[in-house]
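quick one, 200 residues, struct below
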Amino acid sequence: MLSNKIKFLQHNNRNLSINSKKIKKNEIFFAIDGSKQSGNSYSSEALSRGAFKVVTSKNIKNKNYLIVKNVRKFLAKVCCAKYKEKPNNIIAVTGTNGKSSVAHFYFQILKKLKINSAAIGTLGIFYKNKFKKTNLTTPDVITIHKELNFLKKNKIDNVCLEASSHGLHQNRLDSINFKAGIFTNFTQDHLDYHKNLKNF
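---
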């Protein structure tokens, strides 16, 4: 059933969005729940702006809604299906401190060796001699899959990306095939979000 829903969205080849205010006609809105607000609160706005479908975990009997068990996990699978091509060697670096440094050491070392690579994280996306700005340490799930696809098409097969605890918890990195993981350290930062150390 889940694969059929993914195939349905893939067949229609629509653009994906998690921001109801930026929805364009015929895009698919994913009503994900944040720590403070539910995406379902913005479903009507998304539809009024021309959304093709709203993907939700809420049991709404309406042809404009597609119901799934977990919107975040489903979105990751849809992104993986839509943006299939990815770099062959993707490395995740996680931990409280040092993620940016490690990602950039990796990028700079491979650059010195004349190997095409990229670093994705707090400071942005660095590849070849170019740069793209990002708003989050670990970009949202749509952006991360889209950018990895872009890097692959630009003949970049080596990527080191920062995997924040927020990003991991929110399934932003689901459905990505990592070749390796790097762990830097673990401190009590971000307890405002995770509430206790067991939730990290």
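The radius of gyration is 18 Å.
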